[in-house]
Amino acid sequence: MKTLIRTIRNSEFLTFNEVLKLKVLIINLFLMVFVLLSIPLDTVDEFGWSINIIIPIVFFGSVIVTFLLSLVNFNRVAMHLSILTVMGLTYYYVTGTDYLFTYILFFVSLTVIIFYQDIITYLLYGGVLTLYGLFYISSNGSELTGYYSSTSIGVSSLTYQVIFVGFYLVFLLQFLISDNIYEKLNNEYVRMNKTLERYQDFSHSHLIEFIEKMDANPVYKNQGFQLAVNELSVFVNEFFEEDGTEITEVVEFYFFIHSADIDEVIKDENLPAVTRRYASELRKYTLNKRTELVSILFDFATLFKGEDSYDDNRYVYNIDKLFRNRLDKILALVILYKYLRTEITQYDRFGFINRVLTHEEITVMFTSKEFREFISFEQVNFFVDNQELFEKHL
Amino acid sequence: MERQENKYKYGQLEQFKEALELGHIKRKMLVVNIIIILLSGILLYFAIGQNIDDSLVYPSILMLGIIVLINIGFYHVDHDLYSNLKLAMYTTIIGLYVTANVLVFNFLTPSVFTVLFLTYAIVAVYQDLKAMILSSSALFISGFLLVNESPRIFSPTEDGNPQIIYVQSFLLIFVLLLTLSSYILIKRKTFFYNQLASIKESELRNIELMEEVAFINTKKEKDLSPYYKSIEDFNKALSKKIGVPDLLGRRISILTDLKTNSAVDLTQKYKDYTLEEIQELEVLQFDVHKKMQQLSIKASKSLDINVTKKEIFSESQFKSFKHIGDSRYTQIISFVVFYTLLKIDKPYLKKLDEAVIKDMLYNSEFYYRVDRDIIEVYLNNSEVFDTIVNDYLKGGF
């Protein structure tokens, strides 16, 4: 239970699949409570005793299967099964009793579906459940009114229906807003991530050029470094298994792939599957290219960079938003063009950072849709109208 | 020892996160108010179309109207909009639950009881942690009190058993599930705000790092001063083309003067320019201000970046040493290589002391980039790690 609470508290660091697994586990715990509540037979008086025994067993079996499915990482199937189980339980309760509380189960079932935060699942199962709920209210309105109710059966049924549909629609709206925000944030994050990788590609290329100029060996070729990595890996591995031979081989292989064509290793069907698998896993962490490990290292280094104070324009890169005066915007455009035409910002055809952009390339850039992130249509038009001046004087 | 998650966060995050969140709060506030207006319309329909006692419904409609007015009021207060909107949000939540309870206690029918669930749904639109806690507590307390104080409203017949324990159990399950659901959703959303804010700052610092590494490699300092000559030539040609005497000349003069003078000082020299105008020009001063360089560098690297739908929800976007499907050996080796690299001098980052590494790995988001078991092994045995690396890298690297 402690682990479960800790996992929920740190759920933002889980992957989508891990979150789904966690949700299935939580729903399963709740379903167990439901199934236990279904056992007292006097609450379900419309069915015979045999059904009253068989049904809890079936539901219990369903919960067990859901749990097993999530154990083997079939989390989506487990999710569907848990929803079907709760819908089955709802049906069982509302058709088997005449108590008013069973109506609340419709809300609880919708809540289970909401819990998974999957819009398609919500539309499908939630839609079916809402329609069934409306039908149930229409045909059992008198039973749901309550003996001491101050309103008529008609008003009571209408109230039930309006609130139930409202509940479904408001959560649907919440899904749409949340999905929209989430997708936008995600999209921007991925785009930023890719841009960041470009800077890091350049930083890494500069470092490689620097090492070559110094006539030094890259770190992964240093024997002391290799031995330290090996010894530490064996040490850490001892906490998980006794034999350190295998990890030593994997460490050797890790350093070996720095001088090999990893794509060829992965594709080579003559090699054992385990070798190809390790090549595929370890390529993310090699040091001769700008890999994930190199990026993490750069990210770590940025923690030591300057701490300029925050201002509203700190992350604004759009000339139109940065400046209000039209002439200032023209000046900004001129400086941008001049920088791109003058400074080395690109790889040459040999893979060295040694090239400036040509006027033609800048024109393609300025007129592209993606570049609206930096300049507006008005500035593009100004550039197009005066591009001979840009080319000649800047 | 408790982790201090914020110890190594970028200092600028909180302010940007606030700005990022502000836009979303505005939209959610609008949606909630539209729903409240619709709800008022439905209540009005019940009062007029269904012949319900007006005195039972009108107070609630009035309260909903007041909530909308309060929201409009908070929205239009100029100072500190973020805090105002948060305050408007909490006021709305309390107002909605008060209205729902008034309705429930006025009617005392099981059908109106479910309006509490609808209230919860409306409040869930906000997706805010404090709002969620407030809403869950309000729902549970209102529901629990009502069921305890007036159990007979759930009775199907005159002497029927209302099965209060079931109503309370289902209410508890309902509140717990929705609270957990909102909690996980809000945590993940907040995490994204953090990530996005973090990556924006990381971009600026990576640009700085790239420039620093480029200087180490090329040994050439960037000299942008010849730009002024080109810009002057461009200005002359442009002025001639459009037929004005000197379109950008004064501005170029201010720009060159800003290299050695402050904006305030220049207001004396350029009396036809306000301080704000000169401060805006200051951003263009590429010898003093970094903005134009940062903008140009970003622009130079931004072409042909495409994002596919598949990439948007891919966990591979998060760089770590604990990817799903990777073997334990890979997770160990990747972390160990990273750790060993922190222990050696690099052109852009000097080797770090063991105490600094341990503190940073424990108290930063990097803690979550390593498999939990592996990072625990490190944290519990950092001295052994230190000794091993020092032994092999003895005498320098």
Describe the structure concisely for a colleague:
The complex is a heterodimer of chains A (394) and B (397). By secondary structure, chain A is mainly alpha-helical.
Structural overview:
The complex is a heterodimer of chains A (394) and B (397). Chain A has 394 residues and is mainly α. Chain A has 3 domains: 2-185, no CATH class; 217-301, no CATH class; 319-393, no CATH class. Chain A has 17 helices and 2 strands. A two-stranded antiparallel ribbon of chain A has the order 1-2. The longest helix of chain A has 61 residues, at 153-213. By secondary structure, chain B is an all-alpha fold. Chain B has 3 domains: 13-199, no CATH class; 227-298, no CATH class; 315-392, no CATH class. In chain B, 70% of the residues lie in helices and 0% in strands. Chain B has 17 helices and no strands. Chain B has helices at 13-49, 54-75, 81-107, 110-113, 115-124, 129-149, 164-218, 227-242, 249-257, 263-269, 275-283, 291-301, 309-312, 328-342, 354-362, 372-380, 382-392. The two termini of chain B are 34 Å apart. The model of chain B has no long low-confidence stretch (mean pLDDT 88). The interface between A and B is large, with 169 and 172 residues.
